[in-house]
């Protein structure tokens, strides 16, 4: 082999310049797996960063789905359903005939493209997530303003109180605490959802007028208000749902209002349980009524 060609090959095999290579490094670089199962002999891997066993398992899954479904759409639906169940939600699946070009962002270790009998198959675990990461972090922060870690059970119960289905909450917990330690940290949520935390972008148009709430609880409630507003319902319905949700999460009796234009108010409320803010021309307020003694 010519020296120049050998150098190109070594760059492929050892891109991080470690100075050492293994047999598997050569196989990965050349996309050649001599010991793979006979059923995979017709497979030509175009691109992947998956571990070998995971890659082969997913290829088997695709070929099995292809045999069981007469249509391409049926096969894709089945593949996505099973991948979401096994590895978590947010998989994208593609089948293309002839030429295929694609560029995307995906989670590390979760990309696979291969050809099989004239078709290109591509699967990526999307960077997107069905979870509202900013809101989930606020829920966590609200519960842990005075502690470093949080019991999983406490976080799970809080998610369900805020309206997340039990199944979706359980799926999130399995991602956040995959080793079942029973405790989670804030960075566990960021890692599982591939998120770099900043103050929620949804709050940039919010101007807080008055509050005595802790910061994370304040932001959690503002996000709840904005979430309900996005449903474009009548003001009376919005207020009723907001009141019910606050009482489920925090207990007690809450008062809620919406005002258009300028607004003046004075009221009695529990310490740390008052919030008034403006958002796109309206003023929103919530407060927990003091106990009657």
TrEMBL record:
SUPFAM superfamilies: DLC. One of its GO terms (biological process) is microtubule-based process. It comes from the Eukaryota. Pfam families: Dynein_light. CDD domains: DLC-like_TAL. GO terms for cellular component: dynein complex. InterPro entries: DLC_sf, Dynein_light_chain_typ-1/2. This is EF-hand domain-containing protein.
């Amino acid at each position: 082999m010519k020296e120049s060609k050998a150098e190109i090959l070594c760059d492929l095999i050892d891109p991080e310049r470690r100075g050492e290579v293994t047999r598997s490094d050569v196989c990965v670089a050349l996309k050649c797996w001599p010991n793979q199962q006979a059923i995979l002999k017709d497979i030509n891997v175009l691109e992947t960063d998956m571990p070998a066993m995971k890659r082969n398992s997913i290829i088997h899954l695709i070929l099995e789905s292809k045999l069981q479904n007469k249509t391409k759409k049926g096969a894709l639906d089945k593949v996505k359903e099973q991948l979401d169940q096994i590895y978590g939600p947010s998989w994208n699946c593609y089948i293309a005939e002839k030429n295929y070009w694609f560029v995307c962002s995906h989670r590390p270790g979760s990309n696979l493209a291969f050809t099989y009998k004239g078709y290109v198959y591509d699967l990526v675990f999307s960077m997107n997530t069905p979870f509202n990461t900013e809101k989930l972090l606020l829920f966590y922060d609200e519960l842990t303003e005075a502690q470093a870690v949080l019991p999983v059970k406490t976080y799970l119960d809080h998610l369900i109180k805020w309206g997340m289905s039990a199944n979706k909450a359980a799926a999130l917990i399995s991602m956040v605490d995959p080793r079942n330690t029973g405790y989670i940290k804030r960075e566990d949520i960021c890692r599982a959802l591939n998120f770099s935390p900043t103050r929620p972008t949804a709050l940039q148009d919010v101007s807080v007028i008055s509050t005595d709430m802790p910061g994370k609880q304040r932001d959690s409630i503002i996000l709840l208000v904005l979430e309900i507003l996005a449903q474009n319902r009548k003001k009376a319905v919005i207020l009723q749902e907001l009141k019910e949700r606050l009482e489920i999460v925090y207990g007690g009796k809450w008062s809620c209002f919406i005002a258009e234009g300028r607004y003046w108010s004075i009221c009695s409320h529990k310490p740390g349980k008052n919030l008034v803010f403006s958002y796109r021309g309206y003023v929103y307020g919530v407060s927990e009524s003091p106990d009657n003694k």
